[in-house]
């Protein structure tokens, strides 16, 4: 009961939901049972909750990350080969709270440092898809079982994707300039506790500055879906009984570009309208791992064949995950 109380108050922030309810009903004069009142409550509550959680989580994660600068990360990855290297690459991706476009410069640096292509692709898949902040945000919106299951399947996809690329020996499809762009070896700085705190605060400011627009747009779309679009319309397009729902959600996510924090409110609203859990997660994963801007950036450093293979592996993985969650997601709720 203590854990449930802490989960409800610290992650789900029921106290904040009650405060926003009073604001909407007593100050703004709306009933949260109405469309406009419910939409306002959804928007204000979700925006505040996500920003509060995001600031706290990014601060903690960045403080931990200060012990693993890129130079140290490269050294750690360089100690492993084969599937163990893919596993470590995927796990290290979880402590880097970057979007897909931000992960690509690190991907270039790892390749330049001589790390295996498959290991760097495991990192590239995992980094935007799974991070510690997204785990807690997922738990705050859904539950811990779903959050942990999402992380597990995301890591499996990253490991399998990197392993397939490694086994296929696709190094020749990386642009030559990436290999020749050797980075100087820089000894990691020994930061003081104060410097680590300053680094963590700077990371919070930087990441919030980069994602706040996507969060507002995502929560706005979620509020519209949650309160203004009839459930039968959502069900007609993305109902769990529709065989094409996961495929449609995945394809819909590709042209978009947003951080996972911006897609979570949309997934929350879709599930509340009866959309399958796997369909909502497939949309999230496609936006974060297969967004068109990130693929365009990746095309600058890899040849078309490798880009198609990478996108194909990730797309197939997302579809399998989506259909699996739709089939067995009821066990997680």
Automatic annotation (TrEMBL):
Family of the protein in this entry: Belongs to the UPF0718 family.
Domain of life of the native organism: Bacteria
UniProt keyword Transmembrane, yes or no: yes
Membrane topology summary: Multi-pass membrane protein
Record key words, sorted: Cell membrane, Membrane, Transmembrane, Transmembrane helix
Organism: Dehalobacter restrictus (strain DSM 9455 / PER-K23)
Protein name: Permease
Transmembrane domains' residue ranges: 42-64, 76-98, 104-125, 132-165, 211-229, 241-258, 270-292, 304-325
Keyword Membrane: yes
Compartments (UniProt record): Cell membrane
Pfam families: ArsP_1
């Amino acid at each position: 009961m203590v854990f449930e109380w802490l989960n409800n108050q610290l992650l789900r922030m029921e106290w904040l939901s009650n405060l926003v309810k009073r604001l909407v009903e007593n100050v703004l004069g709306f009933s949260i049972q109405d469309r406009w009142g419910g939409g306002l409550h959804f928007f204000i509550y979700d925006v505040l909750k996500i920003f509060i959680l995001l600031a706290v989580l990014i601060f903690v994660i960045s403080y931990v990350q200060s012990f693993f600068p890129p130079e140290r990360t490269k050294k750690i990855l360089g100690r492993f080969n084969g599937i163990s290297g893919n596993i470590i690459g995927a796990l290290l991706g979880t402590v880097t709270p970057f979007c897909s476009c931000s992960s690509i410069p690190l991907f270039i640096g790892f390749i330049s440092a001589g790390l295996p292509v498959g290991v760097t692709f495991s990192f590239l898949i995992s980094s935007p898809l799974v991070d510690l902040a997204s785990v807690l945000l997922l738990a705050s919106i859904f539950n811990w079982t779903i959050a942990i299951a999402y992380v597990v399947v995301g890591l499996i996809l990253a490991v399998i994707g990197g392993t397939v690329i490694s086994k296929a020996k696709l190094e020749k499809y990386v642009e030559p300039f990436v290999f020749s762009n050797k980075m100087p070896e820089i000894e990691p700085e020994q930061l003081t506790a104060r410097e680590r705190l300053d680094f963590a605060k700077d990371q919070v400011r930087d990441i919030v500055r980069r994602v706040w627009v996507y969060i507002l747009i995502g929560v706005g779309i979620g509020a519209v879906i949650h309160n203004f679009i009839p459930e039968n319309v959502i069900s007609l397009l993305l109902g769990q009984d529709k065989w094409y729902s996961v495929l449609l959600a995945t394809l819909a996510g590709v042209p978009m570009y947003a951080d996972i924090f911006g897609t979570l409110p949309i997934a929350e609203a879709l599930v509340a309208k009866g959309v399958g859990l796997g369909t909502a997660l497939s949309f999230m994963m496609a936006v974060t791992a297969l967004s068109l801007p990130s693929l365009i950036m990746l095309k600058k450093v890899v040849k078309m064949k490798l880009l198609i293979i990478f996108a194909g592996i990730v797309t197939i993985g997302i579809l399998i995950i989506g259909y699996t969650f739709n089939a067995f997601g009821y066990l997680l709720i």
